[in-house]
Amino acid sequence: MAASNGEKGLIVSFGEMLIDFVPTESGVSLAEAPGFLKAPGGAPANVAIAVSRLGGRSAFVGKLGDDEFGHMLAGILRKNGVADQGINFDTGARTALAFVTLRADGDREFMFYRNPSADMLLRPDELDLDLIRSAKVFHYGSISLIVEPCRSAHLKAMEVAKEAGALLSYDPNLREPLWPSKEEAKTQIMSIWDKAEIIKVSDVELEFLTGSNKIDDETAMSLWHPNLKLLLVTLGEKGCRYYAKTFRGSVDPFHVNAVDTTGAGDSFVGALLNKIAEDQSILEDEERLRKVLRFANACGAITTTKKGAIPALPTDAEVLSFLEGK
Predict the structure, then answer these.
(1) What is the pLDDT along the chain (326 residues), one digit of tens a residue?
(2) Residue 289 and residue 173: Cα distance in Å, rounded?
(3) What sign does the dihedral 20-23-24-27 (CA atoms) show?
(4) Which three-class secondary structure state does DSSP give residue 314?
(5) Which pLDDT does position 6 carry in this prediction?
(6) How far is CA 211 from the centre of its chain?
(7) Sign of the CA dihedral 67, 12, 233, 195?
(8) CB burial class (10 A; 0-12, 13-18, 19+) of residue 40?
(9) Model confidence over 151-174: pLDDT tens digits?
């Protein structure tokens, strides 16, 4: 059963974890990169670690290869205080890899090695249902919707979490190269849209899902559905916009010297969910929500100042120190 208000609730994050290979030099193509640093990644895993770094309780549910990289990733989760009983290992498939191109402005492009990777092969019967039922917040992306059997596992996990009273949180985390087509990506991402109570999209994802090149309130509200409690649009260096049932607004960004934007959105989400897991009434109190979103913006900004997602995720003390200087 999901935890009651006031208790530090568990955030269960579902989906992929992989190795990002990040070039040692920014602003060059993959072919031109002189070398790569291996960095643990995968949006749902990043969110789980972001929560734990900030003092929250988190668990990860997914599948890794029964290989050195897979066991390394599981070890990183444990080292960062993330509960690992929801992890399965596949003896027949490798842990996913992604090579990341860093542009000069710190933004990135991806080339994936998944044919198939272990995360795609998670089956519904492998899910730790007791762990999922204990979630106060159940968080997921859309990459786990691309192929079976992981898609069915994803849908089952969502259903079980919802029945147990968890708040459902969705960050589509669009990765176009992984989908058969843009049309399939949009169809599948939207197929579970009306289930989530918290949804975070980037400005790029807003354009992709709506077909509009206008990043405004009307475009954002076209994604609203009756079950939603909070819709967030992150705008990178321009901050974020928020839409709740009875109020809406924007929160200013923090300007930093960005070297790698990988994981910034996950850091933002982790910070937000950590606060919501402590007290869901934040979702109905604009003044308190704005403070939480300012904190989340700071987490995202700090994360862009180092290479790699997980190494860059801040602690609570680091965020408070950062905010004191602003």
Answers:
(1) 454 444 589 999 999 999 989 888 888 888 889 999 898 999 999 999 999 999 999 999 999 999 999 999 999 999 999 999 999 999 999 999 999 887 767 677 788 999 899 999 999 999 999 999 999 999 999 999 999 999 999 999 999 999 999 999 999 999 999 999 999 999 999 999 999 999 999 999 999 999 999 999 999 999 999 999 999 999 988 999 999 999 999 999 999 999 888 899 999 999 999 999 999 999 999 999 999 999 999 999 999 998 778 989 999 999 999 999 88
(2) 23
(3) negative
(4) coil
(5) 45
(6) 23
(7) positive
(8) buried
(9) 999 999 999 999 999 999 999 999
Alpha-carbon torsion 146, 149, 151, 157, what sign?
A: negative
> What is the Cα–Cα distance from 291 to 204, expressed in whole angstroms?
25
Contacts of 130 (CB under 8 A, 6+ apart): none
**Residue 152 phi, psi dihedral angles, 5° rounding:** -65, -35
> Taking the CA atoms of the chain, what radius of gyration do you get in angstroms?
18
Q: Of the candidates 42, 44, 53, which has an alpha carbon nearest to the alpha carbon of residue 81?
A: 53
Q: Helix crossing, 286-303 with 316-324: angle to 10°?
A: 100
Residue-wise DSSP of 197-259: SEEEEEHHHHHHHH-----SHHHHHTT--TT-SEEEEE-GGG-EEEEESS-EEEE-------S
**HEC-encoded secondary structure of 114-128:** CCCCHHHHCCHHHCC
Structure tokens at 146: 């691309």
| Cα gap 94→76, rounded to integer Å | 17
DSSP structure string for 154-179:
HHHHHHHHHHTTPEEEE-----GGGS
Q: Are 60 and 13 in contact (CB under 8 A)?
A: yes
